[in-house]
Amino acid sequence: MTYIIAGLGNPGAEYENTRHNTGRIILNMIAKEYSKEEFVFNKKINALSVEGKVGKEKVLFVEPETFMNLSGKSLAPIVKTKKNAKLKLTTADDLLVIYDDFQLPIGRMKISYNKSSGGHNGLESVIKSIKTEAFPRLRIGTAVAKKSGDAKVLHGDETIEKFILGKFKEDEMKELKKMAKKAVEVVELWVNEGRERATNLANTE
What we know:
By secondary structure, the protein is an alpha/beta fold. The chain has helices spanning 22-34, 72-75, 121-130, 157-164, 170-193, 195-202; strands at residues 2-7, 40-42, 47-54, 57-64, 95-105, 109-113, 136-143. It has one domain: 3-Layer(aba) Sandwich (Rossmann fold), CATH 3.40.50.1470. The chain is built from six helices and seven strands. A seven-stranded mixed beta sheet has the order 2-3-4-1-5-7-6, with helices on both faces. A hairpin with a 2-residue loop joins strand 3 (47-54) and strand 4 (57-64). The two termini are 32 Å apart. The model has no long low-confidence stretch (mean pLDDT 89).
């Protein structure tokens, strides 16, 4: 069996280090811990991918090269659904999707499972493409925090779009690197000890 960890975002230099590409940023940092190889383009799934090992378990790291709202098209061919149940593919429960959450402040992450997309276009594409919500996802906070520690609330589609497509500041990138170290631990627990242990770590501030 192979676990799949996908980092959502948009391809292209203009989207590098933007908040909406947090999934790809974190995935790259995690992959460096578990693979000595570089990401290569996989034409069959239209994604960058690289294989690695977490403990004794095989892991495939995937970055869809579609735009965010079509992310699921890269994952559907390699995740088991009713249509391809006879093939030896990873089940949805062994898929971890990493993506940005502008309602969580930077410095926080959460694992959720078997829930709706919450309006995130990339996650919605994955749900529709693999035909289930029953897979874990790791949400990485990108919001500016208030003094209380809560995320500043954004209103209006234009305001939200401008924010998520904006680039991280230098100090925010440092915070993301700290998050990546925790994400590495979360992934290790998820693969080797299960979703519950990984959730406990991820959801603890």
